[in-house]
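Two records follow; treat each independently.
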Amino acid sequence: MVGQAPGRIVHNTGIPWNDKSGDNLRDWLEVSSEEFYNVEDFGIIPMGFCYPGTGKSGDLPPRKECAKEWHQALLDKMTNVRLMLLIGKYAQDYYLPEVRKWSLTKKVEHFQQFLPDYFVLPHPSPRNNIWQAKNPWFKEEVLPVLRYEVKKILS
């Protein structure tokens, strides 16, 4: 999983996705916390490795130098990556530069275009509940495929 950067709660606990966003993500994946934090099944890489601070409308973007410095070295150590979940705009822009100009909605609508290597998702923050309400197809069409892919890989 490639996410954004730790939020304040995650920064304070030192446990990735240990917040409401993580609860939502685990719900989307239909996995327990035990399964989610099993390093044999899931790898977690943030786009930024430190809490970037707060801006006018929420957390600041992840620091750009982190991904350039660390992602490839970390991925080189992960020998059995079968699917990368690109969670949110920053991960998608970094790993899918050819569609950087697409809106998040368009990327998620065309998620199958990026399979079998990548699965694009909006950020599971409660702040994105409005986006989900405007795009009911996400829960109806995208999440069932995500859950199927995750179950297939974990079995």
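The next record belongs to a different protein.
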Amino acid sequence: MTSLARLSENNFLIIGRAGMDIYPDPPGTKTEEATQFFSCLGGSSANIAVALTKHGGKTALVTRVADDAIGRFSINELRKYGIDHTHVTTIGGEYRNTFAVVETRVEDHQSVIYRNGAADFQMSLEDIDAVDFSAYAALITTGTVLAAEPSRSACFRAFELAKASGMPLIFDVDYRPYSWPSAQIAAQTYSRAAALCDIIIGNDVEFGFMAGDYSKGLSKARELARNGAAIVVYKMGEHGAITFANGEEIKTGIYPVTALKPTGAGDSFMGGFIAALAAGLPVQEAVLRGSACASIVVGRVGCAPAMPTTAELDEFLATHPGPSAPIAANQLEDMLSQG
């Protein structure tokens, strides 16, 4: 297990995609009825970088973007948020950036994501070898990076170099079935990646997927914590989370809000959670701050622009009635048995 002490340096290398999200405007509009749209930075890794930057961290992104207008938009947005894009390289030909059309509505929500010939999947070993890993405190990646080659091999090369530099590895499972050639390859690859990582964050479905059975997802999270991960966060949506750390199982609730949309919560949680750990806060408080960030984002338009600053998070916590009660043992048993 790698020590998490380096998180205090608050300087993160993040691997994964950056792209463009567009939202039908005004909020509540269905895509098929829209006549105007709001554009912003998208992509889970880019969103996490924005979240950490808004909490005062330094971030650098490693990925590839298309050599076209959408790629240039993505780089401009990274620059706007103060994210280091030194290792964001362009690729020509028919490769394209992630492009998502996402509705700001909960009822009958639709998200349409275009990943054909994804530019970020062309990240190579050469891209990784060009990075000075000693310059960063920790490596963060999302599972999407692992869905195709050469990106998959490049990511595992990054894990190798990060470990050699003594950097903690932070992994957001982020399973997107449409990106993978098969469920079997996905499960095997995720399990291989998770076994190498120091902090693992996923939801109940994702851990269940890795275990090969939804009802065994919690056991999979426990196993990863027992076998070397310093922190494993098992998220359960409205039921809160169970976090495995320091030999403990920490149950936490959520901060109920009226949501505008269901997207962006996971990226915001990651940003708030890791920023809190970097600030030296206890694991339970870090999880609750991450949960509060998730609640803030689902109540705002967009993902990257919706990420809260530390001041906005503190204000939310000061004015919100507080988190819901953690899940009870019998509730958890019922939930798993119904999976």
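Discussion point: The domain at 5-337 is CATH 3.40.1190.20 (UDP-N-acetylmuramoyl-L-alanine:D-glutamate ligase). How would you locate this feature using only the token line?
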